[in-house]
Amino acid sequence: MAHPPPVLKVNGDYVTGATEASNQRRFPPSPWPLTPPVPSSSSSNHFYLSSLNQTESETISSHLYVRELTMDEESDSYDSGEEKRRGVKHKKVRYCNKYSVAFESDPIFKGWIKASTKGDQYAYCIPCDNHLKLSAGKTDLKRHAEKKKHKDAAKAVQNQRPINNMFNLTVNESKVNEAELRLAAFITEHDLPMTVADHLPQLVNAMCPDSKIAKEIKCARTKVTALINHVTGEENKAKLINHLKENKFSLIVDESTDKGCIKHLCMVARVMVENDVKDCFLGLIPLKDATAESLYNHVVEFFSKHNIPYKENLIGFAADGANSMLGERHSLSSLLKKDIPHLFVMKCICHSFALCASYACLKLPRSLEDLARNIYSYFHCSPKRMGDFEEFQKFVHVKPHKLLHPSQTRWLSLEMVVSRLLEQYEALKLYFTNAVLGDRLTTPEIILERLSHPVTKLYLLFLEYVLPVFNNLNRQMQSESTQVHVLYNSVTAGLKTILGCYIEQGYLNKTDLTKIQFRDPGKFLPLEQIYLGVKVALELRNSTYDMDEVKRFRLCCLDCYIEASSQIFKRFNFDCMTIVKSLNALSPKVVIAKEIPSIIELISSFRTIATDIQAIDTEWRLLGNSLDSMNVNPDMMPQKFWCTVSLTRQSDNSLMFPNLAVFMQTLLSLPHSSATVERIFSAINRMKTKTRNKLSTETITGLLHTKQLIKGACCYDFNSAATCKTTVPPFSLLGAKCNRRDNR
Q1: Judging by beta carbons within 10 Å of its beta carbon (0-12, 13-18, 19+), is residue 4 exposed, middle or buried?
Q2: Residue 4, pLDDT score
Q3: Sheet hosting strand 122-125, strand order edge to edge
Q4: Which of 79, 95, 267, 485 could be joined to 282 by an S-S link, Cβ 3.0–4.6 Å?
Q5: What is the mean pLDDT of residues 293-309?
Q6: Is residue 678 part of a domain?
Q7: Are residues 340 and 459 located together in one domain of the fold?
Q8: What is the pLDDT of residue 617?
């Protein structure tokens, strides 16, 4: 039986026949014949249809089929009613204008626009280095042209010189560049903020209005930062790295956290430069943690990045006594020794002796340190109290010096604090006696009670004697000049000085230093004969003290001596210091005195440095017999002495000591302390203040390298043309992307 014509539901009505053509347009004919679905016998529709006659059943079946067909087709259409009911939004098609070459001839866009590589719907802005989407065509370009960023960039491009004339500077332009470099050196040398450069060129121009060079200086804070980072700083860094690639050197490291809460690893290279040993700042590396593995990875990465052959050229390493630096099992030094088995490792002498003094002073009463801190805190930030104290200073005829604060990080501060307290001791007693009666506060009472104690002054006099024993060696090892040749003798001399204060001299003279029983009471001097300093002996002789108090005082001083000796033996293993002892051969006094006939031990300790073992030892023996014809003396510095030896020639104009001189000059670069790194951290603290706490590591590194570049000269004597070989290009070619936070 033929099916009835299709019936569609439109606006709530069933439409047939008359709308067949329109239905065909909306629903294209299917290649398969349309047959109504056969309902299941269990379906309710089938039960309902079976109760009707044939005509009604066929009509309703057609209506159901057409309804299902209509719903299926409409669900796939763009304007589906179901999607509208659900609120589905379709993305509108956007139309963009295309780039036209005619834009380039427009007077508004001429010279700064060209076709973009991203497609024909974009334009490329040359000054801004940006791709602009042409949604509204020329309107978008006009809007971009009105922006301040585009105007500034376009102005910079107009002032830029052509690339073919970039490095052909005139005399005047060269002098302008030199003046800008000197301004950068001035800011660096005096630790001034970068913002000074915003007004400094205008100030110079105002003071020198007739100067053509002053008028041409355009050097604000952003350019000054770029000059420091990418010209002067990069110049010094490149020179140093090239020098380390060809010469033996030692590495000195330490880590610290600055005021911006950034932990840095500071690296210093100790190397021979122009016949003189110099400690050169190498780099500053930011750290997240200071584990041995992290430190090692950063150091190796730095050397690998700059192609420095550290496994061949690194001969010495020095750091403080931290476990991550110098631990025996797993530390930076142990990891480096796996790469360089012959590496000479030195624990910082300054740190070691400062700790020895600190532990020794713990055997004395704690009240001494509390007294020094309380006195400083009482006068600190109180002009009235300082003014009143000056009256008492005048009364007892002492100089009006300020009282000092005992610092934990300043190694030599404690000795100066003790000396100042003794200088002002009588004036302090008179002042606090008056303060107790007038102020009625607890602090003056505590201070006066301690000052009036009979043995307080004795302890201060004892410290005034014993602290210089540590500080003199500490001060000597903070020197940048070579001290490795006197290291062993200086340490043993300091130790014997302390031992001689409480151990019998005869026992010390006949016993080897490593076998001295410094804790054995049988080897001690009688308690009354222990040496405590001349001022203590005079004070005990001229004043009356309680005998029990004096005995306790002497016992505390004895404990201080024993603890100091114990700490020195603990930190310096004299049995393993044969290498350090053999370095005495570097001393001009030892060479001239002919104390060492052969340097076999020294050569065997540094076999990787010695090129020809026999030739070096032969030249050493020859040197002892040739000193009369050389202009040398025992008081010469080692580097100057060996420089003279290296320049000595024979009658045929050939070098007399070529192998020995190179070997000894290389050993002069061995480290003796890490005090240089501490000085760099002090310089960083002067740069990165509370108001400049956002200086980046890159800018700090550039400042430190620039300081090193101008070292030995003032900013106004800084010869930038001779020092910086690189021609200074305009700022747009410096490649500097300085954040505003760095321009402080």
Answers
A1: middle
A2: 52
A3: 113-115, 122-125, 130-133
A4: 267
A5: 94
A6: no
A7: no
A8: 92
For residue 567, give the amino acid letter.
Answer: Q
Predicted confidence (pLDDT) per residue in 637-696, tens digit:
999 999 999 999 988 889 999 999 999 999 999 998 888 999 999 999 888 888 788 889
Pair (570, 506) in one structural domain: yes
Better-scored residue on pLDDT, 713 or 88: 713
Q: How far is 381 from 370, CA to CA, in rounded Å?
A: 19
336/317 Cα distance (integer angstroms): 9
16 or 712, greater pLDDT: 712
Measure the N-to-C terminal CA separation of the chain; round to a whole number of Å: 95
Q: Please report which helix (H) or strand (E) contains residue 283, including its range.
A: strand 276-287
Q: Per the confidence metrics, is the pTM higher than 0.90?
A: no
Does pLDDT of 701 surpass 90?
Answer: yes
Q: Say which residue the tokens 């004043």 belong to.
A: 543
Q: Are strands 130-133 and 314-319 parallel, antiparallel or unpaired?
A: unpaired
Pair 448, 565 in one domain: yes
Tell me phi and psi for residue 26, to 5 degrees.
Answer: -80, -35
- The C-alpha R_g of the chain, in whole angstroms, comes to 43
Amino acid in the structure at residue 83: E
Question: How many Å apart are CA 672 and CA 79, to the nearest integer?
Answer: 86
State yes or no: pLDDT of 598 exceeds 60. Answer: yes
Instruction: Report the candidate in 260, 224, 258 with the shortest Cα–Cα distance to residue 743.
Output: 224
Buried b (16+ CB within 10 A) or exposed e, 529-554: ebbbbebbeebbeeeeeeeeebeebb
Domain count, the chain: 6
**Cα–Cα distance, 505 to 507 (Å, whole number):** 5
Greatest extent of the chain over all pairs of C-alpha atoms, in Å: 145
- Nearest 5°: the CA angle 717, 718, 721 is 125
Please, what sign has the CA dihedral across residues 376, 378, 381, 387? Answer: negative
How far, in Å, CA of 458 to CA of 627, rounded?
A: 52
Dist CA 122 CA 248 (whole Å): 57
Q: Is residue 96 part of a domain?
A: no
The answer on 600 and 518 residing in a single domain is no
The percent of residues in the chain predicted with pLDDT above 70, rounded, is 81
Instruction: Assess contact for 356 and 349: CB atoms under 8 A.
Output: no
From CA 478, how far away is CA 474, in angstroms rounded? 6
Q: Report in angstroms the alpha-carbon separations of 205 from 173, 180, 193, 199.
A: 16, 13, 20, 10
Instruction: State the average pLDDT for the chain.
Output: 82
Averaged pLDDT, 148-168: 70
Domain containing residue 343: CATH number: 3.30.420
Q: How many CA atoms lie within 13 A of 387 on its CB side?
A: 3
Structural domain of residue 736, as residue ranges?
Answer: 173-231+694-742
Q: Tell me if 134 sits within 8 A of 96, measured CB to CB.
A: yes
- Residue 398 has φ and ψ, to the nearest 5°, of -120, 155
Higher-confidence position of 616 and 260: 616
- For residue 353, give the 3-state DSSP assignment: helix
**Helix%, strand%, coil% for the chain, nearest 5:** 55, 10, 35
Alpha-carbon distance of 643 to 645, in angstroms, equals 5
Strand pairing class (263-273; 276-287): antiparallel
Confidence of residue 87 (pLDDT cuts 50, 70, 90): low
User: pLDDT category, 75, cuts 50, 70, 90?
Assistant: very low
Q: What span, in angstroms and rounded, lies between the C-alpha atoms of 235 and 228?
A: 10
What is the per-residue pLDDT for 24? 47
Same-domain check for residues 296 and 363 = no
